[in-house]
Amino acid sequence: MSTNKLDQLYRSVIMDHYKNPRNKGVIEESSITVDMNNPTCGDVIHLTLQIDDGIVQNAKFEGDGCSISMASASMMTQIVKGKKVDEALKAASIFSDMMLGKDVDDSIDLGDIEALAGVSKFPARIKCATLAWKAMEKGVGNDSEQ
After folding, report:
1. How far apart are CA 26 and CA 48, in angstroms?
2. Contact status, residue 30 vs residue 61, Cβ threshold 8 Å
3. Which residue spans within 5-146 are E strands per DSSP?
4. Residue ranges covered by each domain of the chain
5. Which residues form the NIF system FeS cluster assembly NifU N-terminal domain (predicted)?
6. Which of 1-10, 104-113, 132-141 has the lowest mean pLDDT?
7. Rounded Cα gap, residues 25 and 31, in angstroms
8. Alpha-carbon distances of 108 from 83, 87, 91, 114, 141, rounded to whole Å
9. Which pLDDT does position 145 carry in this prediction?
């Protein structure tokens, strides 16, 4: 597949998650709530996580922001649901490496998240893409301290 067609496919995946976000909403019985914002561009996320026995049972988000930020939140919630906390953190580490343009560990299937790889070429947008991931890391980090 040509680079142009691949870029077009990735843009379409990102727009699909932006226009049809997965796991949008609030978990009423959530064990963890994290609010974060990106003051640089105004992206805001409200993430709720339900963690039982060290497993992310559910993850939902609400927020307002650019297509990259909201699509990334949608993709992140899909990836972490059903994962052990350490696996969710490993996925966040892999995603962070991808955003920094590093070679990534392919031990965890990132699925649609790979569509965001091109964001690494735009440093100003990296904070948009990583906002939800940072919120998840903060949330599960707080959970492990309890």
Report:
1. 6
2. no
3. 32-38, 43-52, 55-64
4. 3-145
5. 10-128
6. 1-10
7. 15
8. 11, 8, 7, 11, 20
9. 44
Nearest to 119 by CA among 24, 36, 7, 39: 7
DSSP 37: E
What does pTM read for this prediction?
Answer: 0.92
- Residue range 75-96, pLDDT digits in tens: 999 999 999 999 999 999 999 9
List, as own/partner pairs, every contact residues 119-123 make where C-beta atoms lie below 8 angstroms and the sequence separation is at least 24, other chains included: 119/68
Judging by beta carbons within 10 Å of its beta carbon (0-12, 13-18, 19+), is residue 138 exposed, middle or buried?
Answer: middle
| Residue with token string 């060290």 | 54
Task: Report residue 3 as tokens.
Answer: 């680079």
